[in-house]
């Protein structure tokens, strides 16, 4: 607004106005530099043994199409990640418009749609989110974070390095937004924290029950990151027990192994699919029976899909069976990648904590820009489309 952007430090018993500790210039929160600045500022001002960053706003899973295109009077567009922006005609279905409409409908409780700035009509792509989190780990201070984004060579160098020499480390990332509990998103942020708390489904408009969550944290201030993630999921489940909701905490340190197992399964599927009638039928039925689980019907639960294929497949491709069983067993193991999961109402037993992209037709070209694109799942999706 005209008065700039307020930064707050929340204290019990104080009003929102009393909690304001700094006023900065009007900010575009769809700019990754702003997120990096905020993380650096927050971790410098309030150092802690464990830090959680919560990203709150609209969410569309991995999809980076431009929900503000119609607001600008443009045709529906998609946008690439990175600082350089391009706009193209939409190449894939998305619930972006649906979520935007729901978010504008005050009468719909299921209207909560990450990181969209309605004033600037801008938002962060998943690639930009990764850039912001990585820069926040290495920037000396706020001004250095801005300087890194202004220097493409330096930004590229930081993004290409590991975490050695990082000045900061997050314990948890929370995404109080819709549809973000996807393998593609979890893998994208794997370097930046220990756990990610997010929802496979569209969230109710009230979002997380912060009062209840913080009351439990106050009662147990020494809670470990895993214990606090469990508190968040438990309180969310309790708050929305009568609604159709999901929330999970996933171990980001397990994403490399999850990717490996999905890659092995995808390679086996890709080899057998063109000529294996049993696999074609098993995959098609498993997908169709789970299309309507989430608001975005191109997002399917990974474990449910894997089990659905295995349960229906009676062909001779042993690699398909072995790959599927290995992935299934890993996902449902007590010490697997899902730390804790909650699914209420119609989502119970249909949402196990991790979704994956399964488009109706040709996969979006923007999928190639996310880190998970090299895992082989995209290759398999293209094989399915080309075999129709």
**N- to C-terminal distance:** 51 Å
Helix content range: 25-40%
Mean pLDDT across every amino acid position: 85
Individual helix count: 13
Report strand %.
5-15%
Walk across the major sheet and give the strand order.
3-9-10-11-13
* Oligomerization status of the protein chains: single chain
The arrangement of helices and strands along the chain is: EEHEEEEHEEHHHEHEHHEHHEHHEEH
What's the Cα radius of gyration?
21 Å
Structural class, by secondary structure, is: alpha+beta
How many strands?
14
Largest sheet geometry = 5 strands, mixed
Low-confidence stretches: 64-114, 116-121
Overall shape: it is: globular
The overall number of domains is 2
Description:
This protein has 388 residues and is of the alpha+beta class. It folds into two domains: 29-253, no CATH class; 256-338 and 345-387, no CATH class. Helix content is 39%, strand content 14%. The protein has 13 helices and 14 strands. It has helices spanning 32-45, 96-104, 126-138, 142-150, 152-160, 183-188, 210-219, 225-239, 255-272, 277-288, 302-312, 318-332, 377-387; strands at residues 5-8, 20-24, 52-56, 65-66, 77-79, 87-89, 116-117, 122-123, 172-176, 195-198, 246-251, 299-301, 338-343, 355-357. The strands form five sheets. The protein has a five-stranded mixed β-sheet with strand order 3-9-10-11-13, with helices on one face. It has a three-stranded antiparallel β-sheet with strand order 4-5-6, with no helix packed on it. A two-stranded antiparallel sheet has the order 1-2. Strand 7 (116-117) and strand 8 (122-123) form a beta hairpin. Helix 1 packs parallel to helix 3, helix 9 packs parallel to helix 13 (377-387) and helix 11 (302-312) runs antiparallel to helix 12. The longest helix is centred in the last third of the chain and has 18 residues, at 255-272. The chain is globular and about 65 Å long. 45% of the residues are buried. The model is unreliable at 64-114 and 116-121 (pLDDT under 50).
């Amino acid at each position: 607004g005209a008065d700039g952007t307020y930064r707050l430090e929340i204290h019990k018993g104080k009003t929102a106005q009393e909690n304001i500790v700094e006023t900065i210039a009007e900010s575009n929160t769809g700019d990754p530099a702003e997120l990096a600045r905020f993380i650096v500022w927050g971790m410098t001002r309030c150092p802690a043994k464990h830090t959680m960053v919560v990203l709150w706003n609209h969410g569309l899973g991995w999809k980076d199409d431009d929900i503000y295109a119609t607001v600008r009077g443009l045709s529906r567009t998609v946008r690439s990640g990175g600082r350089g922006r391009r706009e193209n005609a939409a190449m894939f279905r998305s619930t972006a418009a649906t979520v935007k409409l729901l978010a504008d409908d005050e009468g719909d409780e299921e209207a909560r749609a990450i990181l969209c700035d309605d004033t600037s009509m801008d938002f962060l792509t998943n690639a930009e989110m990764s850039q912001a989190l990585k820069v926040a780990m290495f920037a000396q201070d706020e001004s250095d974070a801005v300087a890194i984004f202004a220097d493409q060579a330096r930004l590229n160098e930081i993004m290409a390095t590991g975490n050695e020499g990082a000045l900061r480390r997050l314990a948890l990332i929370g995404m109080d937004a819709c549809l973000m509990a996807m393998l593609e998103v979890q893998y994208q942020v794997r370097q930046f924290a220990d756990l990610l708390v997010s929802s496979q489904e569209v969230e109710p408009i009230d979002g997380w029950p912060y009062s209840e969550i913080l009351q439990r944290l106050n009662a147990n201030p020494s809670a470990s990151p895993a214990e606090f993630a469990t508190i968040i999921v438990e309180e969310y489940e309790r708050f929305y027990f009568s609604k159709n909701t999901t929330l999970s905490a996933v171990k980001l340190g397990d994403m490399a192994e999850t990717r490996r197992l999905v890659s092995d399964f995808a390679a086996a599927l890709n080899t057998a699919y063109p000529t294996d009638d049993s696999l074609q039928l098993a995959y098609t039925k498993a997908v169709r029976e789970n299309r309507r689980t989430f608001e975005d019907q191109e997002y399917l639960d990974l474990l449910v899909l894997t089990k659905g294929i295995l349960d229906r497949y009676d062909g001779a491709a042993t690699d398909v069976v072995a790959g599927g069983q290995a992935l299934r067993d890993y996902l449902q193991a007590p010490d697997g990648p899902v730390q804790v999961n909650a699914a209420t109402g119609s989502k119970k037993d249909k949402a196990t904590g991790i979704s994956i992209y399964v488009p109706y037709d040709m996969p979006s070209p923007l999928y190639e820009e996310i880190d998970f694109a090299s895992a082989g799942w995209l290759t398999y999706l293209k094989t399915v489309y080309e075999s129709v």
